[in-house]
Specification:
six-stranded mixed sheet, 392 residues, alpha/beta, 12 helices, FAD/NAD(P)-binding domain, binds flavin-adenine dinucleotide, FAD-bd, 2 domains, seven-stranded mixed sheet
Length: 392
Amino acid sequence: MTDAKVLICGASIGGPALAYWLVRHGFDVTVVERAPGPRPGGQAVDVRGPALDVAERMGVLAEIRAASTGMRGMSMVDADGAEIFRSEEHTLSGGDLASPDVEVLRDDLAAILMRAAGGEVEYLFDDSPAAVEQDEQGVDVVFAGGARRRFDLVVGADGLHSTTRRLVFGPESDFITHLGTYLGVWSAPNFLGLDHWQVFHQTPDGWGGGVLTARDNTELRVYLGFESATPLEYDHRDVAGQKRILAERLRNAGWVIPRLLEHMWDAPDFHFDSMAQIHMDSWSHGRVALLGDAGYCGSPLSGQGTSMAMVGAYVLAGELKAAGGDHRAAFAAYESELRGYVTANQELALTNKRRVEAQQAAEAGDTEAAAALAEGLADFTDVIGSFKPKDY
Ligand SMILES: Cc1cc2nc3c(=O)[nH]c(=O)nc-3n(C[C@H](O)[C@H](O)[C@H](O)COP(=O)(O)OP(=O)(O)OC[C@H]3O[C@@H](n4cnc5c(N)ncnc54)[C@H](O)[C@@H]3O)c2cc1C
């Protein structure tokens, strides 16, 4: 059934990448996105390891490289803004500057992937699945906007708080692990006059955050957060309420954080979420599968969410092609191909904190502490390169 109708929920990274591959394999693709258009915002995300290979096979690697944030380095500053550390070899957001990895703004990458997927994809913006019912032959989807349509397959690429997962697999609380940190992301003017640079400040009472320049130094992308031992209760759709939470938590923060918070109130691209992971025993149920953060979120701490979504899209579409559209065989193969890579990358998020602490101890000259912290940590480069995409 190569002309099978597939509904993809979510048009960020995994959704458009899957749309690209499914169209090329002869499927009929509809993408539904809750936002009224392609969503702006997001920090720099990283395309690494096999995701570079997938981008190359899509013919978009050069475009992604051209859109790279082009960071030259980073500084850490104290509460008065005095530099306490600088590096022109690595950055906190993107890692080793000499590596082949590409760091790119999330919205720029999403736009490149959507353009690549082309005009054959049907997009339904400002809508969302409200009910999903499947039988042996297909899946009936009732949309929040009132339409009812039937598809052969449905793929949820709708992120950490996936509606598809909730409707088909069960409540989010069954699958989510909070990692104890909340992060807000938004844009501000580059009032610090930085040139392809990032600056971070850590508050004494938990997390601070930082800024990095974007769009030829005309913008700052701000990310500020805080730690919370217990998960917060808040409305995921109430943006003003999320801004209030962040402003309250960071009210005593130093450096330019008060000024960054002033810009937050009018920012059109504010995004706030917990650092969390999704762990599921199975990424599919009948004719419905999950992709990217919806099925196996690693959290921004892994630095691998974007690569996992792009690689996942390639494998899922490839296995559907290889199985001639037999979703049972394809979904099983998708999972057995990818499970080890996903697990290793989710573990990276848990060890990355220790990795950063080890690096800071080494920079402070405490080699003993650095060695103790680094002991037993999986090598980052080995993990990100631990998957080789097949040819489909
Ligand atoms: C606005 C935004 C900012 C982000 N900022 C960062 C960041 O700074 N750093 C970082 O590491 N990661 C960030 N992420 C997450 C990062 O994009 C993902 O971890 C990764 O790229 C995997 O992408 P994904 O496509 O699986 O999920 P996501 O990128 O989360 O995309 C999910 C998409 O599904 C849409 N959606 C959600 N619910 C529904 C629904 N019910 N119906 C239809 N569509 C729905 C969302 O609007 C979104 O476009 C951000 C995501 C978004 C959406």
